[in-house]
């Protein structure tokens, strides 16, 4: 018994004639790829003349538009910063502080090949140009038209004159709106927070408004934007965002644009006159070429529109206390890319790039009338119907139509606008 016990003990202890081999050193663990990576660098410098150039009151129309500064910065920040998100799912998003502008959105197609799907420019100086049609920018203080550049702030009934930057009307915040200032910014985790103070009577608006925008890109290829405003006296607010999309690639042109299939969650739209100004009437989309409650191919719908394309505001169908609501879906069948837009606001402007340069618009004998190319990223020539916008917002000119949702922001209240862009793929055939 004792001998057997010794053998067992010897076996257990490993004390045999065979020498124990030294254990191999473990391989160092491979660094994990983060779900979302955020990189910060610079994109350029603001012109010195732009510092403090924000307009402080409504201004008369100047005949020579070149006399106006193309940009402003009430915060005297010289450096324009650029923030780049990269996800493990091959998505890349870039935002710059000038205009709180999204400059790049790259998402993969159904073959896994990423491409940039929004219009923009390669340099900061190109964003300063007067012909920039708000590519990717934050729009404020008020998106869309305000008729005759006058607004009534209820319930006080006070009337204010705003700047007239589009004929006799006010458009997208005026000459120097939120799209033409350099925003302060800082990083919290994977979020970028930008802020801007719009002084009292800037572009004619009452009240000093503090605005904060949070950008976040998630690993499921979504872009989340939250815009918040506070004021020190009653004013009107309706912010929006204006990325110009083509899901086949920003460079792909109008032929691929016509292949897009759109769905819009709206039973009504705001009727507009020949100048694009709302009349105050809401019309039912049923039985019209504005009915996108079921998917519609743009190539089929566009010839039915008398004004050369869509540029109209839809009244989104919302639940009684619903916050984030599905607004619209765009699909490009060939690449399989899908975009869904969500927001908590009651309106959405659908625009098909009707006012982009038209190569067919050439008239002999008229100086300054005709096709003037607009060159963007990588030398792309952006042309009519080559891009589209889906812009969540309040209804246009709501301050002058009491039955529209009120745009008035009072002291002590917080204006909140959330937008979410969700990108995905259609892997099968669309029927």
Brief account:
The chain is mainly beta. It has helices at residues 2-13, 124-128, 254-257, 298-301, and strands at 36-45, 79-87, 92-96, 101-108, 114-116, 137-139, 145-146, 150-153, 158-161, 170-171, 184-188, 191-198, 209-218, 222-231, 235-236, 240-242, 261-264, 266-272, 278-284, 296-297, 311-316, 325-331, 337-343, 347-351, 374-375, 381-382, 389-393, 408-409, 415-425. It has a 9-stranded antiparallel β-sheet with strand order 11-12-13-14-29-23-22-17-20.
- The radius of gyration computed from the alpha-carbon positions, rounded to a whole number of angstroms, is 27 Å
Task: Report the uncertain regions.
Answer: 1-18, 51-70
Multimeric status of the protein = single chain
How are strands sequenced across the largest beta sheet?
A: 11-12-13-14-29-23-22-17-20
Report the portion of residues in β strands. 35-45%
Biggest pleated-sheet summary: 9 strands, antiparallel
Structural category: mainly beta
Name the average pLDDT.
Answer: 87
Helix content class: under 10%
- Provide a count of the helices: 4
Query: What is the rounded distance between the termini?
Result: 82 Å
Which word captures the global form? globular
DSSP E strands, number? 29
């Amino acid at each position: 018994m004792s001998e057997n016990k010794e053998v067992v003990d010897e076996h257990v202890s490993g004390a045999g004639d065979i020498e124990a081999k030294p254990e191999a050193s473990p391989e160092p663990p491979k660094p994990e790829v983060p779900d979302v990576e955020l990189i910060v660098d610079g994109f350029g410098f603001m012109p010195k003349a732009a510092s403090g150039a924000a307009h402080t009151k409504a201004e008369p129309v100047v005949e020579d538009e070149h006399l106006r500064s193309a940009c402003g910065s009430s915060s005297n920040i010289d450096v324009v910063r650029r923030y780049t998100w990269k996800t493990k799912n091959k998505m890349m998003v870039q935002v710059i502080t000038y205009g709180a502008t999204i400059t790049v959105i790259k998402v993969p197609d159904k073959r896994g090949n990423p491409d940039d799907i929004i219009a923009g420019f390669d340099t900061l100086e190109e964003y300063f140009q007067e012909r920039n049609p708000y590519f990717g920018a934050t729009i404020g203080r008020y998106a869309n038209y305000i008729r005759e550049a006058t607004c009534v702030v209820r319930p006080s009934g006070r009337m204010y004159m705003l700047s007239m930057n589009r004929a006799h009307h006010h458009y997208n915040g005026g000459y120097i709106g939120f799209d033409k200032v350099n925003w302060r910014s800082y990083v919290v985790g994977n979020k970028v927070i930008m802020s801007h103070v719009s002084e009292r009577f800037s572009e004619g608006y009452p009240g000093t408004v503090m605005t904060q925008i949070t950008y976040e890109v998630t690993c499921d290829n979504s872009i989340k934007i939250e815009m918040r405003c506070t004021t020190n006296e009653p004013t009107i607010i309706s912010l929006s965002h204006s990325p110009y999309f083509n899901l086949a690639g920003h460079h792909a042109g109008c032929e691929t644009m016509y292949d897009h299939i759109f769905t819009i969650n709206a039973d009504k739209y705001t009727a507009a006159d020949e100048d694009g100004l709302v009349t105050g009437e809401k019309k039912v989309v049923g039985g019209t070429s504005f009915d996108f409650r079921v998917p519609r191919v743009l190539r089929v719908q566009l010839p039915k529109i008398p004004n050369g394309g869509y540029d109209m505001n839809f009244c989104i169908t919302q639940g009684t206390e619903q916050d984030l609501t599905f607004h619209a879906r765009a699909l490009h069948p060939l690449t399989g890319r899908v975009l869904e837009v969500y927001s908590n606001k009651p309106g959405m402007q659908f625009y098909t790039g009707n006012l982009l340069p038209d190569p067919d618009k050439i008239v002999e004998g008229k100086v300054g009338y005709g096709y003037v190319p607009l060159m963007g990223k990588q030398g792309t020539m952006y042309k009519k119907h080559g891009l589209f916008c889906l812009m969540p917002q309040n209804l246009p000119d709501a301050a002058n139509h009491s039955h529209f949702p009120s745009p008035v922001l009072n002291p002590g209240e917080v204006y909140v606008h959330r937008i979410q862009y969700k990108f995905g793929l259609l892997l099968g055939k669309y029927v």
